[in-house]
Amino acid sequence: MESFLILVVNLLAVTAMLLFPFFKTRGRGIITISVITLQSLLSILLAILVFSNGAFEYTLPGSFVTGEINIRIDQLSAWFMLIISFSFITGGWYGLQYMKHYKSETSAITLHAVAFITVFTSLIDICIIRNSFVFLIFWELMALSSFILIIFDHTKRDTLKAGINFLIQSHISILFLTAGFIWMKIRTGTFDFDAIATFTSTQPAAIGTGLFVILFIGFAIKAGFVPFHTWLPLAHPAAPAHISGVMSGVIIKAGIYGILRMLLLIKADMVTAGYFIVSISAISGLYGVMLAIVQHNLKKLLAYHSIENIGIIGIGIGVGCLGVGYHNQVVAFFGFAGALLHTLNHSLFKSLLFYSAGNIYQAIHSMNIESMGGLMKKMPRSAWLFLVGSVAICGLPPFNGFVSEFLIYSGLFKGMVSGNFLSSIFMLFTALSLVLIGGLAILCFTKAFGIVFLGQSREDHSFDSDPEKSSRIIPMSFIALAIVIIGVMPALLMPALNQCAGLYQEGLIPVDATGIINAQETGTIDSAIGTISGIGWYSLIFIAVTALIFLIRHLLVSKREQRTDITWGCGYTGDSSRMQYTASSFVRTYRKLAGGVLDVKREKKEAEGLYPTDLEQHTHPGDTLERWLIEKPVISVRKFLNRFLFLQNGNIQAYILYGLIFIALTILIPLLSENIESFINLLKNL
Amino acid sequence: MVSFILIIIASLLFTGFLVKTKSMLSGRKGPGILQPMKDIIRLWRKGSVYSKTTSAIFRIAPTIYFSSVVMAILMVPHGERSGIISFEGDFVMFAYLLAFGKFMMIISALDTGSSFEGMGASREALFSMLVEPAFFLVMGSLALFTGNTSFSGIFETLHYETNISYMLGAMAAVIFVLIAMIENSRMPVDDPKTHLELTMIHEVMILDNSGFDLGTIMYTSNLRFAMYGALISNFFIGVLPLYISVPLFFAVQLLFAVTAGIIESFTARFRMSHNPQYILILTSVSILMFFGVLLMQGRF
């Protein structure tokens, strides 16, 4: 049954592509959306089967290159399949409407549709395949088709640049993965994932940790951990809105899946791995949100928030590892469950935010926050959905972001209360960074929502009311609904999360009072789940209390006199739309405070003469880490390589000569090396 | 339940005592204790004027702000008597609920399109972000000290055995007083009596609110004072019986109001650019407290 479903999911993708030549653009759109919907529903069914019946596996014969291909769907795979499927259903339906603007570009749209289906299928396959060779093939397929998705708007220079940047960084990621997997192939003789587990368990922990770090870097580039994040803020603004949403929602989560999968396989020193992951994640979270605040491009702002949220997910994973390393089930549960739930939550609210941003882009044809304002009145539906997304991403109750952050906080405080000196301090400062991330996110999203949607319009745009149509709002409303449901009824997901987190606790013996994290002080997993369900109830009570107060207010106020007048402007009553606070001024104090971390370039045109007319100030937020870790080294490497420029003289004869020299060397070196070796041996014998 | 009723009673009188202290210290007779509350009730009866620029956000924000504080108060215990809502890690939800109310107030200020209110909103967002770590550090230290992660668990087991732990309680109380002063936009971070829009924080954010909504916001401010006062009183109540703890609660509230009045009377407001440094001092004091706890527990 399950193997049949997997086959159908893959065959559907192939069928769709085979059908494309026989239809026009409209028909192709319908095929794409129906195939994506069907595939997603099947994957969701598969995931539900796994959660109710337990893990499932079978073996494909494979070829002499790959060896046998093991397919195994456990709860972790199922969880990610759920996330991917949901994101692609909403993303597909939203994208169908979004793409109507580009109806005339037939070939580009067709390629886009093919890539969209390919990304989905390869993501699902990545989750279930347990053979490193085939895994890498699908990984590459995903990277290439994401590249095609990003460069849809390929006539723009920035888009191509961002796309190529993504392509290069994706391949650096694949390079690390290949290195790690080949190392294991050499040592174990097979590409099978399970061999990695058996191999690392027989070796010293250092080897496992080393392998984990190599693979972690590979996956971290995909996921966007700092300092491997630099492709993200470029790729997101360049891609169409539904691609940004899907990319931020699930494609970067493939990196998270990889890390989680490797943690299950590799028997590394979990304590070291935990400290390593938490440190890098806390830095990612803080750095991401700190840079997000100063961005003027709405989609770039959201892209930096993806880095922040990847950081939060990483903190959860790290806390889980520490829990496993210190043999504490409850901390492990809180950490992994928090990370997994936040992965789902982030895919929901971030895609919602990106789709709203896409609506704004198609309505006013700009992404510059400084030029917006007052959109709440023109596009109220998008505005309310953006507000739900903003509150959720700040981790505020009663929405879903709070539940996952609360899980991670609980893990941190439980670990801190019962840990040793090092782990206590470490967990407290991690909790502090989480607090700061939350506070900074509030600063960022009050700015984003307030400046974009509230007040008055700052510039005159030609306004296109198309994006406010229900066909777009409906898929977005589904996401908003999911956000609220998870917020008030987290108990629905707890059994599934407990199963996923349980994978990491296999063979974990709770150590008594002598353990480093005291297990008795932290309670049981059942009580933990009870607390989380309680959170949902309290969020519901909060909603009820608010509704009640609204009712009272309505009853009292409705009969009273109500007038409208202009905003208080110290007596000034003229047009004040140009006098409003701007996004830059909103975060000015913060920018000064965080000056060292940020890299904001300012250009200022000073006032001249008695009656100055045009005053300008431009700020260009840069990325400090990108400059020091990528731009500067690249420039110096290029300088060094420029010295060999004389070799590239454009002379065909010279190139043939290089070729000949190369061939000669490849033949001669093995021959000569034997001679040299025997000569050395001769010398030794003397 | 006990604490909820006590906080509501305290909130009716708190600002009255604060204003009275300030008046007396400046040599005036001052208004009666109930005057601030009477002002609020009068506001609740009035009609409202809304700005043309505003949207629905402006109308719903004060109510959500109020309900978020009410919800937070439901979690505050009274010594060993836990609040109406109590669970492991409730102080995290407490802080995040307050943050949600603040989020709504900040965007409602931006909704008016006024540059003054934008200025106030920007400051409020930044300063409350900077205060947050201190709160979590204090709660984290107390959690570490008592081995509990809920308000009631922490305050129930907060026994004072050694002299150093008295220090700890006093330190936490001082930090909470300062947090409450900052969170309620009082001196030395913000001056509620200033008449210049450019130098305000909280007052300038609510410039365009009127009538019922303004009354709600002002009452919420009183509630927040009483809520912090209740948290501070919890450092000293512990497992005392009700006939001692209730008078103690009001004594602490009164002391807090008088202290706030004294601080307001004898300090000048900081320059806006100095506020972040001042707020960060709180965080470093709280880190000291955390290390104190680590020392006491012998975890070094």
Structural class of chain B: mainly alpha
Structurally, how many domains make up the residues of chain B?
1
Number of alpha- plus pi-helical segments of chain B = 11
Summarize the main sheet of chain B: none
Q: Helix coverage percent of residues of chain B?
A: over 70%
H and E order of chain A: HHEEHHHHHHHHHHHHHHHHHHHEHHEEHH
Q: Roughly what is the average pLDDT of chain A, rounded to an integer?
A: 88
Name the pair of protein chains with the most residues at their interface, and give those residue counts.
Answer: A-B, 86 and 78 residues
Query: What is the count of DSSP helices of chain A, taking H or I runs of 4+ residues?
Result: 25
Helix/strand order of chain B, N-terminal first: HHEHHHHHHHHH
State which percent range the strand residues of chain B make up.
under 5%
Poorly predicted runs of chain B: none
Cα distance, first to last residue of chain A?
A: 73 Å
Beta-strand residue fraction of chain A: under 5%
Radius of gyration of chain A: 27 Å
The dominant shape of chain B is globular
Task: Please state the CA-atom Rg of chain B, rounded to the nearest Å.
Answer: 19 Å
> How many domain modules of chain A?
3
Mean pLDDT value of chain B: 87
The main pleated sheet of chain A reads as:
2 strands, antiparallel
Please supply descriptive tags for the structure shown above.
heterodimer, A: 686 residues, mainly alpha, 3 domains, two-stranded antiparallel ribbon, B: 300 residues, 11 helices
